[in-house]
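S., here's the first fold you wanted:
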Amino acid sequence: MIGMIAAVLTTSSFIPQIFKAYRSKRLDDLSPYLMLLFIAGASMWFIYGVFKADIIIVVANMLALAFNSTLLIMKVVYANRLEQNR
């Protein structure tokens, strides 16, 4: 039960940042290195969860990967738009 609650809390922590980024169209204060390192770590946790057949680890990290990848894509797209408008 504690693992499930932890998975929900940590995975859902990206949702407010996604909404903020969508509204402001700015992610210049968000480090791409942080996002890439997180994607690498969550990928490893996902693989670990698959090998352990632990659905909580698999789903939590699959969603975390999706959310973090969304932020990284938004960062690139919005930075390109800002650069084109200059």
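And the second, which I think is the more interesting of the pair:
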Amino acid sequence: MLTATVLSATVRHRYILFHKPYGVLSQFSGEDHTLRDYIPVKDVYPVGRLDRDSEGLILLTSDGELQHKLSDPKFEHPRTYWAQVEGIPEEQALRKLERGITIEGYTTRPAKARLLAEEPQLPPRNPPIRYRKSVPTTWIELVLTEGRNRQVRKMTAAVGHPTLRLVRVAIGSLRLEGLQPGKWRDLNPNEQAALFRIDRKGH
């Protein structure tokens, strides 16, 4: 059963999931290739950002307080990424990603990292990545609780495995599955309730 707080927020605010395609900026301002080209909803703003050359899940809302809490690193809200990297990372490289890596004067927070046993079933990227015939590629999953600028790419490069394709597949319990590139939908009541449980817990 939804609480009165959740029901009230549902009436007053919008909560939207969007599958950002490659090449789109995570903002509404600009001449072209922005969120404005896909989401005809006023007064909603992204919770965090994805780089132009990254893809995947973006949460947008008109709820400024919740937006702040989900964006602030101190709340340790998990975000899950699938990264296609050059080469085949060994266990030592994965453990380095998990422990934290010093990049440009800061050390990344502890994370979770694992190899994906199979290539994930994702829509093809347009344009496709550039393969090097002599270098194999691997998909890894990273779960982070912070979102610094180009962090995943910098982390994988630091352990010798540059990222070729990056897709955010989850924000907390919200998942990308079923949402095609360029498409968006409102959160259902259960998903909204999950967001407010995170809010009440303070992480």
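Why I say that: The two ends are 22 Å apart (CA to CA). The CA atoms of residues 17 and 138 lie 27 Å apart.

Talk tomorrow,
H.
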